[in-house]
Design a protein that fits this description.
Blueprint: H1 2-49, H2 55-80, H3 85-102, H4 104-119, E1 127-130, E2 133-140, E3 144-148, E4 154-158, E5 167-171, E6 173-175, E7 178-182, H5 188-201, E8 212-218, E9 223-228, E10 230-232, H6 236-253
Antiparallel strand pairs: 1-2, 1-5, 2-3, 3-4, 6-10, 7-9, 8-9
């Protein structure tokens, strides 16, 4: 038993004496590669931050550079240790084909993500509607796109579901579609002027493009006035409630009637009662 242990110790000592320098050199190369990849990635990130590029594009370029440097370092390290590189590369290629077939959905998300990042059909901060959902784009990555609703909930969409679909991009602003009814006895010109004044006093309403205000429908019980101002995407919900409140208060102060639904019934003829 002692002889076998001693034999193993001698073999280990002989191995480290023969390969020790190569192992230490390989570890130094690996450490230097990781340090250089980190340093070059940070340097590239600072340079890209000064360019007009989308955040996902900058992140992708930095990661690609780091992965390439680390991969090259691993190859040099294995070659330093005397590992045959050619058979290993061939084996990795065969394994890559099998992995690619097993991960078609994941790879299609990556390809679609790259198409979205470089073609830029929408950007972070814009309001979009696609594949039956809508919201403000809060993040674009290689795998998914995240939309944020006005209620602060998030919708995560795989990128492969986006490419090739019909996309409605509202940009960074949206148009409100509000309606208020006034009585037929009111002066339409005064009503429209009052609504424009309310919009001018609201800080969320954009000056350009100018709000659209006009009579939309002559309804049964009222004259319906369309109020369609533009606001920034984050102000969409708050602006709607504020405008409605200001319209009601201003109409009451100026005695502009907002009628409720009503019907007028006239009896054209009436049979006289029997004698």
């Amino acid at each position: 038993m002692n002889e076998s242990i001693q034999s193993i110790q001698e073999k280990l000592i002989t191995f480290f004496l023969l390969k020790g320098v190569e192992i230490v050199g390989a570890l130094i190369i690996l450490l230097a590669g990781f340090v250089f990849a980190r340093w070059l990635g940070n340097l590239l990130k600072k340079w890209l931050d000064k360019r007009d590029l989308e955040p996902p594009v900058r992140m992708l370029m930095v990661r690609i550079v780091r992965i390439l440097i680390i991969s090259l370092t691993m190859v040099i390290m294995l070659e330093k240790l005397g590992v045959p590189i050619a058979p290993m590369i061939a084996g990795i290629g065969v394994a890559g084909i099998g992995i690619g077939l097993a991960m078609q959905g994941l790879l299609s998300n990556i390809v679609a993500g790259l198409m979205i990042i470089f073609t830029k059909p929408f950007k972070v901060g814009e309001y979009v509607e696609l594949v039956g959902v809508h919201g403000m784009v809060s993040d674009i990555s290689l795998f998914t796109t995240i939309l944020t609703h006005t209620d602060r909930s998030h919708v995560v969409i795989p990128n492969r579901k986006i490419v090739g679909e019909i996309l409605h991009n509202y940009g960074t602003m949206r148009q409100l579609d509000l309606t208020v009814g006034v009585a037929y006895s009111c002066n339409p010109a005064a009503v429209l002027a009052t609504v424009r004044e309310v919009l001018a006093n609201n800080p969320h309403v954009l000056k350009q493009p100018e709000p659209v205000v006009g009579i939309s429908v002559l309804a049964d019980s009222s004259i319906n006035v369309a109020i369609r101002p533009w606001v920034k995407v984050p102000d969409y919900g708050a602006a709607s409630a504020e405008i409605y409140l200001a319209v009601v208060e201003t109409f009451r102060a100026r005695q502009i009637e907002i009628p409720f639904p009503q019907r007028e019934i006239r009896l054209l003829s009436q049979t006289p009662p029997a004698a």
